[in-house]
Write a structure and sequence with these properties.
Oligomer: single chain
Number of helices: 9
Number of strands: 10
Largest sheet: 6 strands, parallel
Shape: globular
Strand content: 15-25%
Order of helices and strands: HEEHEHEHEHHEHEEHEHE
């Protein structure tokens, strides 16, 4: 949808014909059937399905479900060197999903050791994604989010604050979420609880950024995904991916 919107706006905004050698601006007329595509995002109910921590052994199942519903999602990936992961990265790209940055290791003792250590880990992920898959992204989700437990501690709060400041200064955009599916709490979280958490979180919000996880042990996330999609569609949401134009969802 996002690419179609941009194309339509370009075409409508730049319609020019030549008459006797002089440029004439043509008044664009929007066909009635195209009106929904040129509405402001502010007037649309949009759901952003986001998956943290992949690729995993569940990635292909997630991608197949998204394909079934013709939906694109945003994957905040880690560095995964397992043999199966190569195909997962490639399939995320080839199927038109947004691949964004999470961290290479997701190891808090490394990522949040210092501001320098955070960016070394992030840059390692960027280098791998660009070299191996041609992926370049400036969209970041911090492990645990920007208001993670370490930001509540006096010893590590300055590190997290420094990371957030430098992300902005370096041209990154960090994003959190406004609905937590709670699937990341434990592999024992039930399919029902995941679905219920999302339903409760909707609360008439127009734009919902939903936190889900792409982790080997999170089988119930895969089981819950079709029902989640059907609920969102029934509530009138369309689906989109996160990029630089997406309204920011940040905890602070």
């Amino acid at each position: 949808m996002k690419r179609l919107l941009k194309l339509i706006l370009i075409v409508l905004g730049c319609s020019i014909i030549l008459s006797e050698g002089h440029p004439i601006q043509v008044q664009a007329v929007v066909p009635e059937e195209m009106t929904p595509f040129v509405k402001s995002k502010e007037n649309l109910k949009i759901a952003y399905l986001t998956f943290d921590d992949g690729p995993s052994t569940n990635t292909m199942d997630i991608l197949d479900i998204l394909d079934r519903y013709q939906i694109k999602a945003t994957f905040f990936v880690k560095g995964n060197e397992e043999p199966y992961a190569k195909r997962c990265y490639e399939e995320m790209i080839s199927r038109g999903h947004e691949v964004a940055l999470h961290s290479y290791t997701h190891d808090y003792s490394i990522v949040y050791r210092s501001t320098k250590s955070f960016f070394q880990d992030l840059n390692r992920l960027e280098t791998m994604l660009e070299k191996e898959y041609g992926i370049k992204s400036k969209i970041v989700r911090l492990p645990g989010g920007s208001r993670n437990r370490l930001r509540q501690q006096a010893s590590t709060k300055p590190i997290i604050n420094g990371i957030l400041q430098q992300l902005t200064e370096k041209g990154y955009i960090y994003t959190d979420w406004n609905i937590d599916s709670t699937d990341g709490i434990s592999p024992t979280i039930s399919e029902h609880q995941i679905i219920t958490s999302i339903q409760r979180g909707l609360n008439d919000q127009k734009h919902v950024n939903i936190l889900l996880h792409d982790i080997n042990s999170m089988k119930n996330t895969v089981k819950a995904l079709p029902k989640i999609i059907e609920i969102l569609k029934k509530e009138g949401y369309i689906f989109d991916t996160i990029d630089e134009t997406t309204p920011k969802v940040q905890f602070n």
